[in-house]
Amino acid sequence: xxxxxxxxxxxxxxxxxxxxxxxxxxxxxxxxxxxxxxxxxxxxxxxxxxxxxxxxxxxxxxxxxxxxxxxxxxxxxxxxxxxxxxxxxxxxxxxxxxxxxxxxxxxxxxxxxxxxxxxxxxxxxxxxxxxxxxxxxxxxxxxxxxxxxxxxxxxxxxxxxxxxxxxxxxxxxxxxxxxxxxxxxxxxxxxxxxxxxxxxxxxxxxxxxxxxxxxxxxxxxxxxxxxxxxxxxxxxxxxxxxxxxxxxxxxxxxxxxxxxxxxxxxxxxxxxxxxxxxxxx
Length: 281
Description:
With 281 residues, the protein is an alpha+beta fold. It has nine helices and nine strands. Pfam families: MCLN_ECD.
């Protein structure tokens, strides 16, 4: 009894009648079928909670959140750099209109314009703390404020007479630099600096190639405070090419190159306070 029901062998009898190889084959088929089921079918078949699916969804959420936070943080950095790049051009390029010409430069056409551009950049550097809207300061070395450096590149001595179509010049390039100390910049006007260093500023334009003014500034990006993050510190290496004329035509370009890097911030204390708007009744 129990072996045959209505003339049909029972399941127990069939399993006993099947060889072991057939049982293993059926078990493998069931496993393969279960393996290719979707999470809903697996739950219906064996009431197994699809925890792997939940783990994958959690990974997707975590990675997406990290990408969003990284993108927002990087957006603050990019906007800070772009804003300062535009601000530096307005601060140190005389007559900058906000529109760049070829190769992000603007042009001057007379010798006096070249001198005016150099003295303007020096004067703006001296008054930076009084005219800048941003959190900018001078770069300091171990002893004191580093000041600024002016370098000129020119061909070696020679003669040039366009009226007689005569040219006698040594194409070897020589570089001459002066360093203006902060104490001198604080006590002297830009015009006096030109007179003191008259031998340097006495340009021979027919052999002059380039005049560069370089200095370092530091700034603090406070935008990150609103995102509940520590502020970022930046160092700016500014190079103002007040004269750049490799072709020696009637037009020279003025270019400002800015490089950035992030030194360590020395944060002493940040106080957080809840602002409350009150309205008088």
